[in-house]
């Protein structure tokens, strides 16, 4: 709030209030109590500028509460914009607010959201997304990235940059959720032949025999049939799957050791550091060296 009071502000600072289905102390998932000064019954839904719906372990119960989701729908109808943090998007979906929109959530729940709400366009990688007046973010600290974006939208880049400096945050966090997620391609195929292919890839990601002809022979299928079946069951072509598994292996090596990027590239089937760099940008959104700096052991940085 100190930063938003600078002369560059083009809008007055907005008062923030928190609501809970019932007023009073609320036990958080960590055991720390949070005091809800207001219950939803205390508020006229028409008086909200920006409705932000938080996520957490209580979402799975709350999204089946018709009184709460109805209140969210009513509040959203009169709000200038609507936002969710982490799994809070499940409440927006239950309230019918994101049908046909592009949204994101915590990477570990993206597949569930897409499965349960096929009318919602789920993008698992971005830190946050804006689609019209609806903003959604990835998990936990991504809510801070979202908040900075809301500040920038209302008060301008200079104010948002001042807030980011004060809180020691990136104004634009580099990369997406792929640099944090584990096993995004871990869905198991339904057929034994494709399971054999997937097992062979994971058993030795760097093996040279992961071309379409070799994998087709492993599955007992023609290359064209494998390409079609693999893409249908796992949502990606075999070559992309192999590359992603190799990238994940390289991620672990970068975070857990000091081997040169060139050596890691050769070890996991990329051949050259440049080929690894291009694959990293495709799947992770950052360079291998940047990934290492971000995720290596904290003991090495002290």
Automatic annotation (TrEMBL):
Q: Which GO terms describe its molecular function?
A: DNA-binding transcription factor activity; sequence-specific DNA binding
* SMART domains according to UniProt: HTH_ARAC
Stored Pfam families: DJ-1_PfpI (PF01965), HTH_18 (PF12833)
Domain named HTH araC/xylS-type: which ranges? 195-294
User: Where are the stretches annotated Disordered?
Assistant: 1-30
Q: Which UniProt keywords apply?
A: DNA-binding, Transcription, Transcription regulation
Here the segments flagged for biased composition (Low complexity) are 1-18
**Gene3D superfamilies for this protein:** 3.40.50.880, Homeodomain-like
**PANTHER family, per database record:** ARAC-FAMILY TRANSCRIPTIONAL REGULATOR (PTHR43130), HTH-TYPE TRANSCRIPTIONAL REGULATOR RV1931C (PTHR43130:SF3)
Q: What is this protein called?
A: Transcriptional regulator DarR
Which InterPro entries does the entry link to? Class_I_gatase-like, DJ-1/PfpI, Homeodomain-like_sf, HTH_AraC, HTH_AraC-typ_CS, INH-QAR
Question: What is the top-level taxon of the source organism?
Answer: Bacteria
């Amino acid at each position: 709030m100190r930063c938003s009071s600078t002369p560059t502000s083009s809008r007055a600072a907005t008062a923030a209030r928190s609501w809970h289905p019932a007023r009073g102390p609320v036990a958080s998932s960590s055991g720390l109590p949070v005091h809800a000064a207001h219950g939803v019954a205390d508020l006229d839904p028409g008086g909200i500028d920006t409705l932000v719906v938080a996520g957490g372990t209580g979402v799975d119960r709350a999204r089946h509460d018709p009184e709460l989701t109805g209140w969210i729908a009513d509040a959203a109808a009169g709000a200038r914009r609507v936002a969710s943090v982490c799994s809070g998007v499940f409440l927006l979906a239950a309230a019918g607010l994101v049908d046909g929109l592009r949204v994101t959530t915590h990477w570990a729940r993206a597949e569930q959201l897409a499965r349960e709400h096929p009318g919602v366009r789920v993008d698992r990688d971005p830190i946050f997304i804006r689609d019209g007046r609806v903003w959604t973010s990835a998990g936990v600290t991504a809510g801070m990235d979202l908040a900075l974006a809301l500040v920038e939208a209302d008060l301008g880049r200079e104010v948002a940059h001042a807030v980011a400096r004060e809180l020691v945050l990136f104004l634009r966090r580099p990369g997406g959720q792929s640099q944090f997620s584990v096993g995004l391609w871990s869905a198991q195929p339904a057929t034994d032949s494709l399971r054999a292919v997937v097992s062979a890839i994971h058993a030795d990601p760097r093996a040279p025999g992961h071309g379409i002809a070799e994998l087709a022979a492993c599955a007992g299928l023609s290359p064209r049939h494998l390409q079609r079946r693999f893409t249908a069951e796992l949502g990606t072509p075999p070559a992309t799957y192999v590359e992603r598994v190799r990238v994940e292996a390289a991620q672990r090596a970068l975070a857990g050791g000091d081997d040169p990027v060139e050596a890691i590239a050769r070890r996991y089937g990329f051949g050259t550091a440049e080929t690894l760099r291009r694959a990293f940008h495709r799947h992770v959104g950052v360079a291998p060296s940047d990934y290492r700096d971000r995720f290596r052991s904290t003991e090495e940085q002290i």
